[in-house]
Amino acid sequence: MNLLIIGAPGAGKGTMSELILNRYELVHVSTGDMLRAAVKNGTPVGLKAQGYMNRGELVPDEVIHDIIVERLSQDDVDAGFLFDGYPRTENQAVDLDEILKELDKKIDMVINLNIAEEELIKRITGRRLCPACGEIYNIYFNPPKEEGKCDKCGADLIQRKDDNLESLEVRLSEYHKNTQPVIEYYEKKDIVRHIDAAQAIEKVFEDISKELEGLCR
Ligand SMILES: [Zn+2]
């Protein structure tokens, strides 16, 4: 089965991808990872991408396109894959469908992690981390015993620079503007499954698994 997972920042996309990959034998297709690998291995596409990155520019769609074609042409993806972080725009979704059609493949299901904005705001702006031992807290859901101090090592907790309301709102509005059309594109194909991502991690994964079991039958 070929899957795609979509979710706003803070919706738990990384955690769910990991759980899905652990249970089902799928290839993880992440454009970020592929870009880094292509650059590292110095492939023709990688060199092209590196040029843009060195100039501090966004890697354009046609370069990402080449990277995806290269990746999806490898044999291991025949067992099925999970796309994570792509497509981000409707144009990319249309392009991905064309690539897949060429390869006689298709997306079977789009998992959309749904979560209310207030919940995302609490998840992100409440996040605190320990610079000494890496422990992560949340002042709303998982606060340290003593305010501002790590339970494990006693160090002063910090908040990541990006984890504030202003930058979250920019990321969220960017996300909705681009991703809403992507979801609508796949809804027309009737392959989107909306999952309530505000639930406990185990319950979110259980709901996803139920949908996937249906697909395996
Ligand atoms: Zn600590």
Keywords:
about 220 residues; alpha/beta; Rossmann fold; five-stranded parallel sheet; two-stranded antiparallel sheet; 8 helices; 7 strands; globular; binds zinc ion
Topology summary:
Blueprint: E1 2-7, H1 13-23, E2 27-30, H2 31-41, H3 44-54, H4 61-72, E3 81-84, H5 90-102, E4 109-114, H6 117-125, E5 127-129, E6 136-138, H7 165-187, E7 192-196, H8 201-216
Parallel strand pairs: 1-3, 1-4, 2-3, 4-7
Antiparallel strand pairs: 5-6
Helix pairs in contact: 1-8, 2-3, 2-4, 3-4, 4-5
This protein binds zinc ion.
Residues 130, 132-133, 135, 150, 152-153, 155 line the site of zinc ion.
Quick rundown:
This protein has 217 residues and is α/β, with parallel strands linked by helices.
Kindly describe this structure.
This protein is α/β, with parallel strands linked by helices. It contains eight helices and seven strands, in the order βαβαααβαβαββαβα. The protein has a five-stranded parallel sheet, with helices on both faces. Strands 5-6 form a two-stranded antiparallel ribbon. The protein starts with a strand and ends with a helix. Residues 130, 132-133, 135, 150, 152-153, 155 line the site of zinc ion. Zinc ion binds next to loops.
